[in-house]
Write a structure and sequence with these properties.
- The chain has about 260 residues and is of the alpha/beta class.
- About 35% of the residues lie in helices and about 20% in strands.
- It is built from 10 helices and 9 strands.
- It has helices at about 15-25, 45-50, 65-70, 110-120, 135-140, 150-155, 200-210, 215-220, 225-230, 245-255; strands spanning about 15, 35-40, 55-60, 80, 100-105, 125-135, 160-170, 175, 180-190.
- The strands form 2 sheets. Strands 4-3-2-5-6-9-7 form a 7-stranded mixed β-sheet.
- Helix 7 (about 200-210) crosses helix 10.
- The longest helix is centred in the C-terminal third of the chain and has 13 residues, at about 200-210.
- The model has no long low-confidence stretch (mean pLDDT about 95).
- Bound molecules: S-adenosylmethionine.
- S-adenosylmethionine (SAM) binds near residues 44, 60 and 86.
Length: about 260
């Protein structure tokens, strides 16, 4: 029997065996992996993961679910961190040479802040496999010049290789959410990836560019660059942020 879902924690529990198996195969856990599951809930994917790994870490905010998980799995196989994942310090999963994998059926109300928080650990992350609202996955993998392309696409594609694996319908959950879900895999790009000279300035520029989607770059980037400086980078200042590739944002940031 599944516990009663709490709305404030965005709880929709996976209950369809077919999708649980597909997600676990997509994760492909190997015994020695250092893995952390976000929001294990009643444990639909936790159980098969604990079965295949030497050890699993999990971060769960709900005190009742956390207590039930602690009772269910032995401490040698399972460590439960009863915390808000938005404050969770992933560095504590290991020492200086930490390399970890992250998985989870995420609460949709915190998905964007969670992705930005995880991105700060990109250097230690091997990969992340997450269930998210399909609309968020569409935004993550979107190409320039499409409706879904925006700040989330640019900021994540700047750091990660992103792959939309498959969709999951509302009926796979109890209770069913109102929206479709999808599984996305994110892998940090190699160290020699395209990088802006200053990550903070790059982030500020992207935020300003998408702040007012309908305005031209000449307008939205005024605090950073004149129209002539934008043009000098081979970019027409009459274009809008949603037409710019990640590489063009890097060029403008470096200018
Ligand atoms: N993984 C389970 C499954 O597939 O059935 C539960 C998924 S449910 C969509 C999201 C889970 O994340 C819930 O267990 C919820 O309590 C937990 N959660 C919600 N907000 C959280 C937060 N800020 N930090 C950690 N866990 C959170």
């Amino acid at each position: 029997m599944l516990p009663k879902a709490k709305k404030r924690f965005g709880q929709h529990f996976l209950s369809d065996r077919h999708y649980i198996d597909r997600i676990v195969s997509a994760i492909a856990p190997k015994p020695g992996d250092t893995m952390v599951e976000i929001g294990p809930g009643p444990g639909a994917i936790t159980e098969p993961l604990v079965g295949k790994l030497d050890h699993l870490h999990a971060v769960e905010i709900d005190r009742d679910l956390a207590a039930a998980l602690r009772r269910r799995f032995p401490v040698e196989k399972f460590t439960l961190h009863e915390e808000d994942v938005l404050d969770f310090d992933f560095a504590k999963l290991g020492g200086d040479d930490l390399r970890f994998r992250a998985v989870g059926n995420l609460p949709y109300n915190i998905s964007t802040p969670f992705l930005f928080h995880l991105a700060t650990f990109a250097e230690q992350l091997i990969d992340g496999t997450f269930m998210l609202q399909k609309e968020v996955v569409d935004r993550m993998v979107a190409d320039p010049d499409t409706d879904a392309y925006g700040r989330l696409s640019v900021m994540l594609q700047y750091r990660f290789d992103l792959e939309h694996l498959f969709d999951v319908p509302p009926g796979a959950f109890t209770p069913p959410p109102k929206v479709d879900s999808a599984i996305v895999r994110m892998r940090p790009l190699p160290a020699n990836r395209l990088r802006a000279k200053d990550d903070t300035r790059f982030a500020a520029l992207v935020t300003a560019g998408f702040g007012q989607r309908r305005k031209t770059l000449g307008n939205t980037l005024k605090p950073f660059l004149t129209a002539a400086q934008i043009e000098a980078q081979g970019i027409d200042p009459k274009r809008r942020a949603e037409t710019l590739s990640v590489e063009e944002f890097v060029r403008l940031s470096d200018a």
